[in-house]
Amino acid sequence: MAAGAQLTVTEMRRAARHPVDFPVIGEHRVRGDIHLHISNISAHGFMTDAAQELSRGERVIIRLPAIGRIEAHVIWATDDRAGFQFERILRYEDFVAMIDQLQPNPRLRRGR
Percentage helix, strand, coil, to 5, in the chain? Predict the structure, then answer.
């Protein structure tokens, strides 16, 4: 029997990631509010570079512009970074609106 995360969507680590600089407060069931810094984001998840010792499988709820509250769980974690997968894939229109707010510099946005 294979071990590993039981992903709700197909493996999407190759999905287009958008670099961002977005501090967010996550709601953790046990730890309460935790401060995270999102350094890149896609329609499937995000990476933080201030993971505060999170472990694989832990869940947080964050609030994103144009998206609102969304739950995500840790897929992988290293010393200070962690990759999260959203509970659902973001709709394209909502994702574009969010990126427009998170990346005000159009030169940083990837082609659509």
Answer: 10, 40, 45
Residues 6+ apart with CB under 8 A from 40: 17, 18, 19, 20, 46, 47
Alpha-carbon distance of 59 to 30, in angstroms, equals: 10
d(CA 84, CA 48): 8
* Bridge partners of residue 54, in order along the sequence: none
Pairwise CA distance, residues 111 & 10, whole Å: 23
- Distance from C-alpha of 108 to C-alpha of 4, rounded to nearest angstrom: 34
53-62, 85-94, 96-105 — which is least confidently predicted? 96-105
pLDDT at 52: 72
Class of domain 23-107: mainly beta
- Average pLDDT value for residue range 26-37: 93
pTM of the predicted model, to two decimals? 0.78
